[in-house]
Amino acid sequence: MNKSVITISDLSLDEIGQIFEMADQADRLAFSNTAGLSACYSFEGNSIRTRATFIKALYDLNISPVEAPNLLKTKEAVHHLAGYLDNWFDLYIIRDRNHKRLASFSKSTHKPTINAMTSEAHPCEVLADVYSVMKEKGDVGSLKYCVMGPPTNVLKSWQRVGNELGLNLVHVLPPEYMSEAPPEGKVTKSKSEGLKDADVILTDAWPPDFDDKSFQLTRRDLESAKPDAWVIPCPPFNVENEIHQDVIESAYFAGYSQKQVLYPVQKALIYYLLSEAAD
């Protein structure tokens, strides 16, 4: 079975639950040393946190990691790439901005593929963030989520996971991006409306062509959110753009430790996909 995760929508509610249960027991997850499993990974750009936690997870699962730099940058057709590489690998973990090409590769291979980030989706980052919210605040379905800013890969992934899990999520979207609003999502142009009684607030780095400071999240904006609201900025964040330094210095900031769950969730995701592939 070739079960890949290119967007959050590739996982059902039940599958997300299974992955979270495995993440709870992440220290116990490992394949036999004699299984001879290997994974091909390729990360465009720095990818500091995602790369480090994925590679650590591979080692701890007893999977041999092999890097293939710029895997999808070649002009070779993806079905040829997959046809040859499938001879040697059991799993692919790929970060490449070309979402369409990565999606095509995942359909060409007979092995599971994990999207470690494209221009359109960042499923692992958001999956881990949801898991961290569950651990911190309990029932994720009882909370209000506010995502702020232009529809980046992270915020689009939050829209998708909101649909999958039935979350009460509103997107504070700048007017010029309203045409890109998902038909099933809640959107508003008003920061105060989106932040009112919010439990979890998400921001992401702005695109290079966006610089409207009125959509920056400030400490004053948070007065309309819940007193114990959690602000999760996607790193690397910019305190000159999407989030003000006063928020990072406040108790609202979820903190650096919030991202520690990247490792157990990504480890659980790998374990789940390879276990499904073996069935």
Short structural description:
The chain is of the alpha/beta class. The protein has helices at residues 13-24, 48-60, 78-85, 99-108, 123-137, 153-165, 191-195, 245-248, 262-278, and strands spanning 38-43, 64-67, 91-95, 113-117, 144-148, 168-172, 186-188, 200-203, 230-233. It is globular and about 55 Å long.
Tell me what you see in this structure:
By secondary structure, the protein is an alpha/beta fold. The chain folds into 2 domains: 8-122 and 262-278, 3-Layer(aba) Sandwich (Rossmann fold), CATH 3.40.50.1370; 125-259, Rossmann fold (3-Layer(aba) Sandwich), CATH 3.40.50.1370. The chain has 9 helices and 9 strands. Helix 2 (48-60) crosses helix 9 and helix 3 (78-85) crosses helix 4 (99-108). It has a 5-stranded parallel sheet with strand order 7-6-5-8-9. A 4-stranded parallel sheet has the order 2-1-3-4, with helices on both faces.
Per the CATH scheme, the topology name of the largest domain is Rossmann fold
User: What is the terminal separation in angstroms?
Assistant: 7 Å
Quantity of strands, as a count: 9
Structural class: alpha/beta
Strand content: 5-15%
Count of the separate structural domains: 2
Order of helical and strand elements: HEHEHEHEHEHEEHEEHH
Q: What's the helix and strand layout?
A:
Layout: H1 13-24, E1 38-43, H2 48-60, E2 64-67, H3 78-85, E3 91-95, H4 99-108, E4 113-117, H5 123-137, E5 144-148, H6 153-165, E6 168-172, E7 186-188, H7 191-195, E8 200-203, E9 230-233, H8 245-248, H9 262-278
Parallel strand pairs: 1-2, 1-3, 3-4, 5-6, 5-8, 6-7, 8-9
